[in-house]
Amino acid sequence: MYYWLIFINRKTNMRTNELGELIAFVAVAEERSFRRAAARLNLTSSTLSHSLRSLEERLGVRLLNRTTRTVSPTAAGMALLDKIAPAFSTISEAVEDVNTFRQHPRGKLRINSPRIAYQMVFAPIFQRFWRDFPDITLEISLNDSFVDIVKEGFDAGIRLRSDIPQDMNAVRVTQDLTAAVYGSPDYFRRFPLPQTPQDLQQHLCIGRREISSGNLYRWEFAKDGKHVAIPVRGPLVLDTVDMMIDVSLQGIGLVYAADSEENRQHVAAGRLVRVLADWSPTVPGFYLYFPGHRQMSAAFKALIAAIRVDTEYELNNR
């Protein structure tokens, strides 16, 4: 962030608190949120609010329009932001370049991830990662719904390749995934086992919405070069895989999920039954994605090196 700006040249005519006010302004103007800006600068929202009031009083002009729900720069605020933000960014990048010479990168990284990706990507590396990089703090937010990582102040997110916006850079962090259909033994005591994907239209299926379009997801299958997408119906539409598995375990309906280690354990323990295994398609796995215009910090590069699967970056190549 902007910790480097506390080191002010003694010859400058700008006081440290004035520069701090400008830092606060840039953060709030870019994030369009006092809460996200406070997290970015590791300050409280009240501190930022006080800094902004002081800056506006000193300049004699309103820089931000504030409502109970939104924050946006005024015309004067945009003019100021356009002038000073590039300078702050240049200095920050220069300091980060120096940080690459450190033996141990440091800093905080905020990552947004689906729950299943957390288990597949982060859980296996924690012990090794913090042994090698004890000065890096990971703040991981688990959310199966789509999140605008730029708007919400995340450094990066993890999603399936098909769900990543086209203007993002992406790095592969899991192998391909195999889809599977599960139901509980109790459910199959009431309904016959489906023999073909078309049979699912006679079953109760737990639905979910596509992240990109908001449409109900059609369950996809493939066998012997034939691909089908089945519209399903059921009593529930949910947006997290954990909830979908939970209600399926209760016998409420069938679930379409990844052939993960956790789900295989449910099958081995007799809590779930997998069906249509010969129709299971393989899809590209999870990718770490991040804005292409942002310089990668040493801490972020260390994280990528720890979790990436491919030997090369996949940048806007989807």
Structure characterization notes:
- This protein has 318 residues and is an alpha+beta fold.
- It has three domains: 3-99, Orthogonal Bundle (Arc Repressor Mutant, subunit A); 107-176 and 285-315, D-Maltodextrin-Binding Protein, domain 2, CATH 3.40.190.10; 177-283, D-Maltodextrin-Binding Protein, domain 2.
- Helix content is 35%, strand content 20%.
- The protein contains ten helices and 14 strands.
- α1 (16-31) crosses α2, α1 packs across α3 and α1 packs across α4.
- The radius of gyration is 24 Å and the shape is elongated.
- It starts with 15 loop residues before the first helix and ends with a strand.
Question: Which characteristics define this entry?
Answer:
single chain, 318 residues, alpha+beta, Arc Repressor Mutant, subunit A, D-Maltodextrin-Binding Protein, domain 2, 6-stranded mixed sheet, 4-stranded antiparallel sheet, 10 helices, 14 strands, 20% strand, disordered N terminus
Helix proportion range? 25-40%
Write the element-wise H/E pattern from the N-terminal end onward.
Answer: HHHEEHEHHEEEEHEEHEHEEEHE
Mean pLDDT: 83
Biggest sheet descriptor: 6 strands, mixed
N- and C-termini, Cα separation: 31 Å
Range of strand content: 15-25%
Q: What name does the CATH topology of the largest domain carry?
A: D-Maltodextrin-Binding Protein, domain 2
Structural classification: alpha+beta
**CATH-scheme architecture of the largest domain:** 3-Layer(aba) Sandwich
Enumerate how many helices there are, as a single number: 10
Shape: elongated
Organism: Dryocola boscaweniae
Pfam family, one: HTH_1
InterPro entries: LysR-type_TF_proteobact-type, LysR_HTH_N, LysR_subst-bd, WH-like_DNA-bd_sf, WH_DNA-bd_sf
Family: Belongs to the LysR transcriptional regulatory family.
